[in-house]
From TrEMBL:
<dbReference type="InterPro" id="IPR020843">
    <property type="entry name" value="ER"/>
</dbReference>
<comment type="similarity">
    <text>Belongs to the NADP-dependent oxidoreductase L4BD family.</text>
</comment>
<keyword id="KW-0521">NADP</keyword>
<dbReference type="InterPro" id="IPR011032">
    <property type="entry name" value="GroES-like_sf"/>
</dbReference>
<dbReference type="InterPro" id="IPR013149">
    <property type="entry name" value="ADH-like_C"/>
</dbReference>
<keyword id="KW-0732">Signal</keyword>
<dbReference type="Pfam" id="PF16884">
    <property type="entry name" value="ADH_N_2"/>
</dbReference>
<keyword id="KW-0597">Phosphoprotein</keyword>
<keyword id="KW-0276">Fatty acid metabolism</keyword>
<feature type="domain" description="Enoyl reductase (ER)">
    <location>
        <begin position="3"/>
        <end position="299"/>
    </location>
</feature>
<keyword id="KW-0644">Prostaglandin metabolism</keyword>
<keyword id="KW-0560">Oxidoreductase</keyword>
<dbReference type="GO" id="GO:0005737">
    <property type="term" value="C:cytoplasm"/>
</dbReference>
<dbReference type="InterPro" id="IPR045010">
    <property type="entry name" value="MDR_fam"/>
</dbReference>
<dbReference type="Pfam" id="PF00107">
    <property type="entry name" value="ADH_zinc_N"/>
</dbReference>
<dbReference type="GO" id="GO:0006693">
    <property type="term" value="P:prostaglandin metabolic process"/>
</dbReference>
<dbReference type="InterPro" id="IPR036291">
    <property type="entry name" value="NAD(P)-bd_dom_sf"/>
</dbReference>
């Protein structure tokens, strides 16, 4: 027990998130000994803040900690309409940061239209699996790539039109052409690196590319050079835009509500890869970077 000041709450982590950006962030702006950044679903175990009563749950950017003293700033309560029988861990996945990433990438960056063909890579991951399902809801043809046959099978279950395992497919170019001989209107990019260049050749003229992530390069100690995309972007008149979800912070509550509604209606399925034990955070994180997860990787305390 600790003596809280007015408005303070004591949080206890229930589920913690492991995300690719942690690798990028640790490389760019962290020193040895710093607490790793990250979000978690936490239970309020002591409170002097009427907005966060004891026993309620919040999403908090507490980093990799089991217990956090907070003055209430930046805490997001779990949506009041959250069903009793639905795991709160989804607030770190499909009804959380990765979910809103999928929505903004599709709607605000790509402006994906009914009938268009969309390609998404890291398709069986937290963001990718939501991207493909939303594109199906919008009446699009969806092609996904992922790194194992189990992931390919899962994506077919989710209703993806064409799926391939990029590790065993041999020629990425041929796989892309076979999956959509007429090319791609939109590309939701999660992976980056040389494979992106191959995808650009398969875009339709005036194709749009949302650069959401570049996970294949986050662990590099030297920046990769070439092949460069400029010639093909000119010839095909492509439009490429990077984004960070913080741009649409003001829309998060409304977007989370829409995602929750899709889940309740059974239109959005969300698988999770749950690792047990706070002490296994590093292993869970490295496993996610290596592709061990299907769906969102989380740690249950
Ligand atoms: N812009 C934003 O605001 C924003 C917000 C959230 C996430 N993101 C980005 O979105 C991407 C997906 O994040 P997530 O949280 O949904 O992670 P995730 O997809 O659940 O997990 C990462 C996946 O990346 C794949 N991967 C790892 N190394 C790869 C490589 N060299 N080539 C191809 N695939 C590789 C692995 O799947 P395989 O088995 O398929 O290889 C792994 O499962 C990341 O790039 C992340 O940085 C961006
Ligand atoms: C990241 O790079 C380090 C060496 O720099 C290596 O030990 C580690 O296995 C790499 N991680 C992944 C997920 O590739």
């Amino acid at each position: 027990m600790c003596a809280l000041l007015f408005a303070e709450v004591l949080l206890e982590a229930v589920f913690l998130s492991v995300d690719p950006y942690m690798r990028l962030f640790s490389k760019i702006s962290m020193n040895e000994g710093d607490v790793m950044i990250g979000s978690q679903v936490a239970k309020v175990i002591q409170s002097k803040n009427p907005a966060f009563p004891v026993g309620s749950h919040v999403v908090s950017n507490s980093g990799w900690r089991t217990h956090t003293l907070s003055d209430g700033t930046g805490l997001t309560p779990i949506l009041p309409e959250w069903p009793k029988d639905m795991s709160l861990s989804l607030a770190l996945g499909a009804i959380g940061m990765p979910g809103v990433t999928a929505v903004y990438g599709i709607e605000d960056v790509l402006g994906l239209q009914k009938g268009e063909t969309l390609l998404v890579n890291a398709a069986a991951g937290a963001v990718g699996s939501v991207v493909g399902q939303i594109a199906k809801i919008k009446g699009c043809k969806v092609v996904g790539s992922a790194g194992s046959d189990a992931k390919v099978a899962y994506l077919k279950e989710l209703g993806f039109d064409e799926v391939f395992n990029y590790k065993t497919v041999g020629s990425l170019e041929e796989a892309l052409r076979k999956a959509s001989p007429e090319g791609y209107d939109c590309f939701f990019e999660n992976v980056g690196g040389p494979s992106s260049f191959i995808v650009l050749q398969q875009m339709k003229n005036f194709g749009r590319i949302a650069v959401c992530g570049s996970i294949s390069t986050y662990n590099d100690s030297e920046p990769q050079t070439g092949p460069y995309p400029y010639s093909i972007m000119i010839i095909k008149e492509l439009k490429m835009e990077g984004f960070l979800i913080t741009r649409w912070q003001h829309k998060h509550p409304e977007t989370l509500t829409r995602l929750l509604a899709w889940v309740k209606e059974g239109k959005l399925q969300c698988r999770e890869h749950v690792t047990k034990g706070f002490e296994n955070m590093p292993a869970a994180f490295m496993g996610m970077m290596r592709g061990e997860n299907i769906g969102k990787a989380v740690v249950a305390v």
